[in-house]
Design brief:
Layout: H1 6-13, H2 17-23, H3 27-50, H4 57-70, H5 72-78, H6 82-87, H7 90-106, H8 112-131, H9 137-152
């Protein structure tokens, strides 16, 4: 994958490259500044779901979709930065979120079938946020959550 240059980012923002360097000394620092709020918000979402007494799969999936939909532009910007994603632990973090949310939906010891359904449902929601950028949010949310529920067997 081709990495996005700082000049490309500066151009997209409508600023000069030196102005970008004034705020961020490197591409890695810029990517980190974009991803850390995403990681922190995602962790809060998962922890909030784990702390709930009730378990409603549709509500959980809608919230997870909304989280990724809000951050879809950030994710598109950094998808070419696989090394940085790994260094920040985002890939491991998202995979752990899938496991934790799967336990929320299926109980503390989900079967392999249940765990794989959770991964397909949650990962599919993320992908839908990126795959269909021109689809109205409300329509995409409805169809994506319905598909995720089907993957869960609900």
């Amino acid at each position: 994958m081709q990495r996005t240059s700082l000049q490309d980012i500066a151009d997209k923002l409508g600023i000069t490259k030196p102005a970008l360097y004034y705020h961020f000394s490197s591409r890695e620092e810029l990517v980190r500044s974009i991803l850390m709020p995403l990681i922190e918000e995602g962790e809060r979402f998962v922890a909030d779901q784990e702390g709930r007494d009730d378990a409603d799969a549709r509500e959980l999936l809608e919230g997870y979709f909304d989280f990724f939909y809000r951050h879809r532009q950030d994710l598109m910007l950094v998808l070419s930065e696989w090394t940085m994603l790994t260094d920040l632990g985002l890939i491991d973090k998202v995979l752990a979120w899938h496991g934790r949310l799967g336990k929320r939906m299926f109980g503390p010891r989900p079967t392999l079938a249940q765990a794989t359904r959770a991964v397909v449902a949650l990962g599919g929601l993320q992908d839908c946020c990126l795959q269909f950028p021109d689809t109205p949010q409300r329509q995409l949310r409805e169809k994506s959550v319905d598909a995720a529920l089907a993957a869960l067997g609900a």
